[in-house]
Amino acid sequence: MSPARPCAGLRAVVAASVGLGDGPAGSARSGRLLRPPCPAPAAPGSRLLRLPGSGAVQAASPERAGWSAALRAAVAELRAGAVVAVPTDTLYGLACSAGCSAALDAVYRLKGRSEVKPLAVCLGRVADVYRYCQVTVPEELLKDLLPGPVTLVMERSGELNKDLNPFTPLVGIRIPDHAFMQDLAQMFGGPLALTSANLSSQTSSLNIEEFQDLWPHLSLVIDGGPIGDGQSPECRLGSTVVDLSVPGKFGIIRPGCALENTTAILQQKYGLLPSHGSCS
């Protein structure tokens, strides 16, 4: 790993949005905003698949066939370079292949997202983190936080598509605590780019109806039912985003929904020191 560390300007870009949530449009530096497609009424023919059960489908369950069909459909669309709406453990998200540059561009255009706001990467297993990141923390720390409502920001490896967040050497890693998303990432067999299912600057979505205007522009919508308590503002905070790119330190980029538990693990169990956003 290079001894040079990203400083305040770069961290400001990363802090603007690494993970599922979006800040106000245009809040990340002066990056060009890509104009989203004109909102259209939800098309009756929009492809929508509803997950069976509560998300904890057992291998022998009669519902498994529907679960597997949804996985196969989503993987087929992702491999074809499409954008798919998916449920996670925190919010509904938009996923595409992180290795497909055209799909990445489609996500930015769909959301009207600033070109300098990073997309997170969703993986299926902790072991996959080592392929796509330069890991400087113990494996036990990764396993204590992942899967879970946390995005871990580390230095990226050369395995990631250079068109994914080309303006930063860092990448945010997510392994949602959601059975469908873990199955999807593992079945897809590569990194997925992940961001929230909403137009930039608008409210995050806890059910598929809340981003209904986007349906006609998506290849597939996976309905996993409502996520959390829609009446609670805390449920829309998204994942807690933690910078682990500086050895021995951590920085909270976004408090999110799991701040207290995350900081307790980092400080009390592993002795990491808060960086307070400074460069080291």
Walk me through the structure.
With 280 residues, the chain is an alpha/beta fold. It is 25% helix and 18% strand. The protein is built from seven helices and twelve strands. It has helices spanning 8-16, 64-79, 101-111, 126-132, 139-145, 179-188, 259-269; strands spanning 48-50, 84-87, 92-97, 120-122, 133-134, 150-156, 170-174, 192-196, 220-223, 240-243, 249-254, 273-274. Strands 1, 2, 3, 4, 5, 6, 7, 8, 9, 10, 11 and 12 form a twelve-stranded mixed beta sheet that branches. The protein starts with 7 loop residues before the first helix and ends in a 6-residue tail after the last strand. Residues 1-30, 38-45 and 55-60 have low confidence and may be disordered.
Task: Please bin the fraction of helical residues.
Answer: 25-40%
Low-confidence stretches are 1-30, 38-45, 55-60
- Which outline best applies? globular
Q: Based on DSSP secondary structure assignment, what is the total number of beta strands?
A: 12
Return the average pLDDT rounded to an integer: 84
Instruction: Report the portion of residues in β strands.
Output: 15-25%
Order of helices and strands: HEHEEHEHEHEEHEEEEHE
Please compute the radius of gyration using only Cα atoms.
18 Å
Count of helix runs: 7
For the biggest sheet, the summary is: 12 strands, mixed
SS content category:
alpha/beta
Q: Ends: how far apart?
A: 14 Å
Structural key phrases:
25% helix, 7 helices, 12-stranded mixed sheet, alpha/beta, disordered N terminus, 280 residues
Strand and helix layout:
Blueprint: H1 8-16, E1 48-50, H2 64-79, E2 84-87, E3 92-97, H3 101-111, E4 120-122, H4 126-132, E5 133-134, H5 139-145, E6 150-156, E7 170-174, H6 179-188, E8 192-196, E9 220-223, E10 240-243, E11 249-254, H7 259-269, E12 273-274
Parallel strand pairs: 1-9, 2-9, 4-7, 6-10, 11-12
Antiparallel strand pairs: 2-3, 3-8, 4-8, 5-6, 6-7, 10-11
Helix pairs in contact: 2-6
